[in-house]
Amino acid sequence: MNRIPHPKIGLGHWPTPLEPMLRINEMHKGPELWVKREDCSGLAFGGNKTRKLEYLLADAQLKGATTLLTAGGVQSNHARQTAAAAARVGLGCELFLEQVEAVVEPDYNHSGNLLVDHLLGARVHQLPYGQDLDAAMDLRAKTLTDSGQVPYIVPVGGSNAVGAMGYVHCGLELAEQLQAKKLSFDAIVLATGSAGTQAGLLAGLALAGVDIPVLGITVSRSSIEQCDKVLTLLHEVQSLLKQPNLHEDHVICFDQYYGAAYGEPTAAMIEAVRLAASLEGLLLDPVYTGKAFAGLLDLVRHGYFGTSERILFLHTGGSPALFAYSQCLGEN
């Protein structure tokens, strides 16, 4: 996998497992569903951001960084993994976490990822809904610089062209797994938010010469907005890789599954989380993978995929957030 012209450090456990969903497949008698377990990446409950942080932290170290700054919602999986990566390599870490207006869960503001952030030693700045997180980080970065430190701002979700190289690596890794297992997939389904996972995976598959549609289930915005975001980042990544650009018809997103707002529970998400747990022992999260899996199940039920097709679900992690949603996910 030396086709990625950017340095990285080792933070995760690779390759992540590729597994069939045997009991769910028995239940729906439709396309054969598999899962790639990015939740098994090994860094503080795992998740997809570990791949991105391997490249971002290498860049930070090259620039002499002493402190990482990043931002997200209160229950940000990305913030948790950034704090863990900083702890692993001995950097300071400050998190700028925005309140999520639509969520009224009683455990939301002290459990789940937020609890883990504190255990990992991060300095947490909790900000009200609607505050400009980039401006807050820029101001703090100036203060740190003035005090002699070297701050490094990690973008929200780790999703710039450098971070997305982590999912270029994933695309190459998946291509090797398919060859070794003599497997093929007709589509890949994943949660798409900050765009780096979908964009990087598309670029990585193209680099490996593998043509599999990648379907993004949006978690916060319309399919038109999300497709534009993914395509813009995809072309930045492919420019760094010196690849020909994929066209807009390669970027597919569905926006009907995230509900009224980012992070707000939906009945379909609750059903999907409970189904994956009770039939597969697979823990999804309420914000990303739960809604993405709900979308996949709905597409299956409505005949989007052929019954003889094989579909891969990319499990991007996030299980600590379950504890922040204990009320809606409690007893049936």
Question: How is the topology of this model organized?
Answer:
Blueprint: E1 18-20, H1 22-28, E2 32-37, H2 49-62, E3 67-73, H3 77-89, E4 92-98, H4 112-119, E5 123-127, H5 133-146, E6 151-153, H6 161-181, E7 187-192, H7 196-208, E8 214-218, H8 223-240, E9 251-254, H9 267-280, H10 289-301, E10 310-315
Parallel strand pairs: 2-10, 3-4, 3-6, 4-5, 7-8, 7-10, 8-9
Antiparallel strand pairs: 1-2
Describe the structure.
- This protein is an alpha/beta fold.
- The protein folds into two domains: 18-48 and 159-325, Rossmann fold; 49-158, Rossmann fold.
- It has helices at residues 22-28, 49-62, 77-89, 112-119, 133-146, 161-181, 196-208, 223-240, 267-280, 289-301, and strands spanning 18-20, 32-37, 67-73, 92-98, 123-127, 151-153, 187-192, 214-218, 251-254, 310-315.
- The strands form two sheets. It has a six-stranded mixed beta sheet with strand order 1-2-10-7-8-9, with helices on both faces. A four-stranded parallel beta sheet has the order 5-4-3-6, with helices on both faces.
- Strand 4, helix 4 and strand 5 (123-127) form a beta-alpha-beta unit.
- The chain is globular, with a radius of gyration of 19 Å.
- The model has no long low-confidence stretch (mean pLDDT 96).
CATH architecture classification name of the largest domain:
3-Layer(aba) Sandwich
Largest sheet properties: 6 strands, mixed
Shape: globular
N- to C-terminal distance? 46 Å
Q: Please give the radius of gyration in angstroms.
A: 19 Å
In the residues, how many domains can be counted? Answer: 2
Number of strands: 10
Structural class: alpha/beta
Q: What share of residues is helical?
A: 40-55%
Biggest sheet strand order reads 1-2-10-7-8-9
Which fold name corresponds to the CATH topology of the largest domain?
A: Rossmann fold
As a percent range, the share of strand residues is 15-25%
How many helix segments?
10
What's the rounded overall pLDDT mean?
A: 96
Low-confidence stretches: none
- CATH class categorisation of the largest domain: Alpha Beta
Order of helices and strands: EHEHEHEHEHEHEHEHEHHE
